[in-house]
């Protein structure tokens, strides 16, 4: 079976208010003590499974959980155990015949032993509410995860759909997240416990999951899958950033996911069940995306341009943010209530795809491949026109072309299973080469503008301005050459199989 839930971290300043809101006359407190097990080589965690034995009051329950379908669903199978003296033994065969259980048994087929690795001790305050035709359980968990002497605090609110439409769960989550300034965290207690047991403070950034569109996918269903693909990349990276456990690559992959999402919404908004909401979301995502872009520019400066300037003999100078908004830390952006609300609005839009018989604007098309081509052709013409004029274009026009190529790349990556792979990969390679060249040029131009501003107060900055100006011509030539190759490549969607 699946469990459908959303989980949010509670900021310290909101704990008292949240506890007061939860502690109604129908609320019940229960103590949950659990131990989680894995093999010595961590194969369950690597496969996205978590096996636990938990004491819920006086009742022992063994549970297997696994990755589910979408950002708020997980596979789950629970087995209540008979009363016994002491702690019962783990038995993987208790879950035989279930999807998660069969995955577990396959991983243990070589006889590998299960070893207790970490545990949790939680006080759960829970109650049920009715909302928009659904029944939702609210559970406020406070306690800690432990692995040997190491401890990690737990302070989170879970909302689990008992019955009813998923849209009601999302709507209720939006209300609670906004009221109590909660941030959406897709990491499970098992994920955090596994890290604690290994002594790992930072995990690799998450890239976009592979996506193959099933035969018979309608345009509305394709849009749903593309939005969920973007969310599955964005949410884990945003969780790491909000928790202060991220590096520059987490920020980069979050921005890639948001760019992918915005491109999808902009090109295919008319396919959504609510086209006006799709268009509004694309516009609303621009502000947090821009704020995160400032931090990303600073990362690029620190990782590439500043070392190059130092190697060239430039004096060390501090580049201050140009405005108050520039100094907003990524953690503050992604933990803000508005960010969580945008994520939840995006999730809600992806839950109810346009049906196969619903009208599409522009008029209904014969199949998904033709529908994608209809949307990509105008974008391709804009890219080719901009590439031909690039050498004489202004910096703002060059930047507009770069954004259009990004839009083309991310849309084509999502739809690539529809077209001949050789032609598609050739076009994608060309777009990536062009974007690399344009990105290098853009980063240099941003840095040059910063140093020109700094030179008004500190003449030593003119060294950097001159060095960057010297590199600009070569990067401009690289960009022109890469764009020429992209412009001359045939679009793969015109040869759809």
Structure in words:
The structure is a single chain. About 2% of the residues have low confidence. The chain is globular, with a radius of gyration of 25 Å. It is α+β, with helices and mostly antiparallel strands and 497 residues long. It contains 15 helices and nine strands. The two termini are 37 Å apart. Strand 4 and strand 5 form a beta hairpin. An eight-stranded antiparallel beta barrel has the order 1-5-4-3-2-6-7-8, surrounded by four helices.
Give the structure's gist in a few sentences:
The chain has 497 residues and is an alpha+beta fold. The chain has helices at 15-22, 43-46, 99-107, 166-180, 189-198, 219-242, 248-268, 275-284, 286-311, 330-334, 337-351, 368-388, 395-415, 421-455, 462-488; strands at residues 2-9, 28-38, 50-56, 59-67, 73-80, 115-131, 134-147, 150-163, 183-184. Mean pLDDT is 91; it is low at 359-366.
């Amino acid at each position: 079976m699946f469990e459908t839930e959303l989980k949010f971290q509670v900021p310290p300043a909101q704990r008292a208010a949240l506890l007061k809101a939860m502690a109604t006359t129908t609320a019940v407190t229960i103590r949950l003590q659990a131990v989680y097990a894995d093999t010595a080589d961590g194969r369950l965690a690597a496969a996205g499974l978590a096996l636990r034995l938990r004491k819920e009051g006086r009742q022992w329950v063994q549970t297997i959980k696994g990755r589910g379908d979408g950002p708020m669903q997980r596979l789950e199978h629970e087995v209540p155990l008979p009363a016994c003296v002491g702690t019962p033994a783990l038995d993987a065969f208790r879950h035989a015949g279930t999807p998660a259980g069969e995955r577990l048994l396959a991983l243990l087929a070589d006889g590998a032993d299960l070893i207790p690795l970490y545990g949790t001790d939680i006080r759960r305050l829970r109650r049920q509410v009715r909302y928009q035709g659904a029944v939702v359980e609210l559970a406020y968990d406070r306690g800690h995860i432990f692995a040997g002497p190491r401890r990690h605090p737990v302070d989170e609110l879970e909302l689990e759909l008992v019955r009813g439409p998923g849209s009601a769960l999302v709507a209720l989550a939006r209300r609670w997240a906004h009221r109590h300034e909660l941030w959406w965290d897709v990491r499970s207690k098992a994920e955090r416990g596994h890290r604690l047991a290994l002594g790992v403070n930072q995990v690799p950034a998450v890239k976009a999951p592979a996506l193959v569109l099933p035969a018979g996918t309608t345009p509305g269903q394709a849009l749903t899958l593309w939005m969920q693909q973007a969310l599955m990349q964005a949410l884990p990276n945003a969780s790491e950033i909000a928790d202060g456990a991220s590096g520059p690559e987490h920020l980069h992959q979050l921005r890639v996911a948001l760019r992918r999402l915005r491109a999808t919404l902009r090109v295919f908004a008319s396919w959504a069940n609510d086209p006006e909401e799709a268009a509004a979301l694309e516009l609303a995502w621009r502000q947090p995306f821009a704020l995160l872009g400032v931090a990303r520019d600073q990362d690029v400066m620190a990782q590439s341009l500043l070392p190059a300037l130092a190697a060239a003999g430039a004096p060390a100078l501090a580049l201050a943010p140009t405005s108050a908004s520039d100094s907003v830390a990524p953690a503050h952006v992604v933990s803000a209530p508005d960010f969580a609300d945008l994520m939840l609005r995006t999730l809600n839009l992806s839950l109810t795809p346009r049906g196969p018989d619903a009208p599409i604007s522009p008029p209904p098309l014969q199949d998904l491949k033709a529908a994608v081509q209809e949307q990509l052709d105008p974008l391709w013409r804009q890219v080719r026109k901009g590439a031909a004029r690039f050498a004489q274009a202004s910096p703002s026009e060059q930047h507009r072309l770069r954004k259009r190529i990004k839009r083309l790349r991310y849309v084509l990556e999502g739809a690539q299973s529809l077209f001949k792979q050789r032609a598609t990969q050739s076009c994608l390679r060309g777009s990536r080469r062009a974007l690399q060249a344009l990105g290098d040029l853009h980063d240099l131009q941003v840095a040059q503008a910063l140093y020109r501003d700094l030179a008004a107060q500190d003449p030593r900055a003119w060294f950097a301005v001159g060095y960057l100006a010297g590199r600009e011509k070569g990067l401009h030539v690289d960009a022109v050459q890469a764009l020429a190759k992209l412009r001359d490549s045939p679009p793969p969607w015109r040869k759809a199989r």
